[in-house]
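[recover] target loaded
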């Protein structure tokens, strides 16, 4: 983690200001004491209350100069931005309804932010703050305190290292008693604003403590919610917002979950507890016994791990402060959040790049996820506790499908440089090619440190990945050798067909583990073909030659797919000339030859179908259940009476060719029909731009292509167009 070494390089303590936390407030004092624990930052300014009198009194008590005690947060943001000794970051500890305006004011003045949760009322507001922080290159943290416990960080590390196998089910709860009676009517100020929709938002219980459940599960497991079904209850008569909630969850990848949050659970104080059930074991942890982890593994004695006594992984252990047996609790967890955040800010000020461990504090993206979760729970409950899809993108006119770019055509650039460009182009993530320096398959399969470095680069540029691309390696598995394959294999294997094939088979097995380690469920790629050169049956091609070739592909790829199954990863073949499946009927036959094995599906790419005369939207419709990934790529067919569809041995890009790949929107692919089919089949995976256009500058084209996909990525209608015409 980031420690005092990075802090020391900044030359002095950092300065911070606080909005909220005046006399009579609870959480502001917790923040101040937690920051003071490591002595890495000092309070320099504040707007502690709506009352200037309270602000000045709080400032006097805390040793803040009166000239830096501001009447309003707007005056504070503007005033601090003009000072040479301005604050490095602001801490926002006000009621929920003010978070958005305050955070935006400081971000606009170039000041880093740490904010209490929930981040905002609306998900669109939260995303706006995240985008603004990214645009202004500012660190934005959200105080999900419980991620600061060393034991919680150890749990995350154990799950990342596959110690309990594939996660099947999560049971998490947060139970409290404090609102079992109408405390808001008995003078309790905390209860008054938390149960008031004007200050608390759409939800009390889910917003206050249920969001901690969502964050704890997401942080430790990495699971992303696909859909949920929530029932929000109001048990105390006259209360306006929920005080109890039961939530069923489905995650991307197939795992399930059950959450419960309650503020009317008599006998419970702060009962945050999580139990994570995997295929090889279970991990459980309770916030009221935060120094201990219980671990159960199949065929082994049950274990209790103790912070400070047992061998936590180095990163988790680095957050432990005192020897075992001396309890570390809430203040230490809070302090750990700030230690990481302030350390990262110190490195930023020193001009150093941040890695993943530096950024191990609750990010603004976690805050965005928390707001989405709250809103989806409210939506589900208001509709009668129905299942609602949990979209991961916020534009209301667009589907939740992320827009990514395939890195294969950019492998001449170092991965970090490419990521920087991708973010500037506007993409959500990258389909990472396994060549160049973008992803070394064997290292990703066997070296945890390498995987964390790759993930850190992505996180640094706020990018995600949903698939890795194994095209060149996969081609070497099933193809008949010719000298062109030498360029896809290690130089030492040049001219050695069987050695190249053996290498490729082993690499593809590693690819399954690499994908799993990178946290993705799909590997796209090619399979090669022993019979591509026979596509035109002269000299005559016999049925046996075709049968034997498909049998050979099944024999070669079955052990590879066995490894994919073990890792919970699917292979998405790009239906493409040179492959065993290159059109509709060969794709149909390939699935049949593999007995419709679940492991094998398709990476849909319309650019390879349209020039063959295959309708892309018909392919999608008929193979809907087998579309595991989607490439967005365009082709222009320009048959002029001279050129044919076979290319005439003329180089790509030459305008004499009968067809050429084009940047999106500049060819003949009907993307509207494609999007309609994807909507009909409820495809929620990435739309990955494979940018190829020899006639256009690639950075201009890649940016334009991203904009094109976002524009065309529309959602289906939620109602029938003629519903309003019908009588009840």
């Amino acid at each position: 983690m980031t420690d005092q070494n990075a802090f020391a390089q900044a030359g002095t303590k950092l300065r911070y200001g606080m909005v909220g936390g005046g006399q009579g407030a609870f959480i502001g004092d917790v923040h101040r004491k937690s920051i003071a624990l490591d002595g890495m930052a000092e309070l320099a300014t504040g707007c502690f209350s709506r009352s200037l009198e309270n602000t000045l009194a709080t400032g006097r008590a805390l040793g803040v100069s009166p000239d830096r005690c501001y009447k309003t947060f707007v005056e504070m943001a503007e005033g601090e931005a003009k000072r040479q000794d301005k604050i490095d970051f602001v801490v926002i500890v006000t009621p929920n309804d003010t978070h958005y305006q305050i955070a935006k004011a400081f971000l606009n003045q170039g000041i880093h932010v740490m904010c209490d949760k929930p981040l905002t009322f609306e998900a669109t507001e939260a995303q706006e703050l995240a985008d603004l922080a990214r645009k202004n290159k500012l660190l934005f943290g959200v105080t999900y305190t419980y991620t600061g416990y060393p034991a919680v960080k150890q749990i995350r590390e154990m799950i990342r290292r596959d110690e309990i196998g594939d996660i099947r089910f999560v049971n998490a709860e947060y139970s409290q008693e404090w609102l079992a009676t109408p405390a808001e009517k008995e003078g309790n100020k905390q209860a008054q604003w938390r149960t008031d929709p004007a200050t608390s938002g759409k939800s009390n219980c889910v917003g206050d403590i249920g969001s901690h459940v969502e964050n704890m599960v997401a942080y430790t497991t990495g699971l992303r919610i696909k859909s949920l079904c929530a029932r929000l209850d109001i048990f105390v008569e006259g209360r306006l917002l929920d005080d109890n909630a039961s939530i069923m969850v489905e995650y991307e990848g197939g795992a399930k979950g059950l959450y419960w949050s309650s503020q009317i659970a008599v006998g419970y104080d702060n009962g945050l507890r999580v139990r994570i059930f995997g295929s090889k074991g279970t991990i459980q942890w309770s916030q009221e016994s935060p120094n201990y982890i219980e671990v159960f593994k199949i065929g082994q004695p049950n274990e209790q791990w103790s912070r400070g006594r047992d061998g936590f992984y180095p990163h988790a252990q680095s957050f432990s402060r005192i020897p075992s047996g001396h309890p570390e609790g809430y203040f230490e967890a809070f302090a750990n959040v700030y230690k990481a955040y302030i350390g990262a800010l110190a490195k930023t000020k020193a001009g150093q790049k941040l890695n993943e461990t530096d950024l191990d504090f609750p990010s603004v993206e976690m805050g965005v996820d928390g707001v989405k979760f709250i809103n989806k729970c409210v939506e589900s409950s208001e509709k009668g506790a129905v299942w609602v899809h949990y979209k991961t993108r916020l534009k209301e006119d667009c589907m939740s499908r992320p827009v990514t770019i395939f890195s294969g055509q950019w492998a001449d650039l170092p991965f970090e440089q490419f990521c920087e460009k991708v973010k500037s182009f506007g993409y959500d993530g990258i389909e990472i090619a396994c060549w160049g320096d973008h992803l070394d398959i064997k290292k990703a399969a066997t070296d945890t440190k390498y995987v964390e470095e790759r993930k850190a680069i992505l996180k640094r540029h706020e990018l995600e990945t949903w698939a890795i691309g194994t095209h060149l390696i996969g081609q070497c598995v099933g193809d008949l050798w010719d000298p062109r394959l030498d360029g896809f294999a290690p130089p030492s294997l040049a001219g050695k067909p069987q050695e190249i094939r053996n290498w490729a088979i082993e690499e593809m097995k590693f690819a399954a583990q690499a994908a799993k380690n990178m946290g993705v469920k799909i590997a796209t790629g090619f399979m090669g073909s022993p019979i591509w050169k026979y596509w035109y049956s002269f000299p005559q091609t016999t049925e046996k030659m075709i049968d034997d070739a498909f049998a050979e592909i099944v024999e070669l790829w079955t052990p590879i797919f066995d490894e994919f199954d073990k890792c919970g990863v699917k292979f998405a073949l790009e239906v493409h000339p040179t492959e065993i499946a290159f059109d509709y009927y060969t794709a149909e036959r390939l699935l049949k030859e593999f007995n419709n094995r679940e492991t094998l599906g398709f990476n849909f790419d319309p650019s390879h179908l349209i020039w063959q005369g295959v309708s892309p939207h018909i392919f999608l419709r008929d193979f809907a259940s087998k579309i595991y990934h989607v490439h967005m790529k365009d082709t222009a067919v320009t048959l002029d009476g001279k050129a044919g569809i076979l290319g005439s041995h003329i180089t790509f890009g030459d305008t004499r060719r009968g067809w050429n790949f084009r940047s999106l929107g500049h060819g003949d692919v009907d993307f509207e029909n494609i999007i309609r089919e994807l909507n009909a089949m409820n495809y929620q995976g990435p739309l990955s731009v494979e940018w190829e256009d020899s006639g256009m500058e690639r950075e201009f084209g890649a940016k334009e292509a991203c904009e094109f996909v976002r524009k065309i990525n529309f959602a289906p209608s939620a109602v029938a167009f003629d519903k309003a015409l019908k009588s009840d």
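[recover] notes: Confidence is low (pLDDT under 50) at residues 1-10, 392-398.
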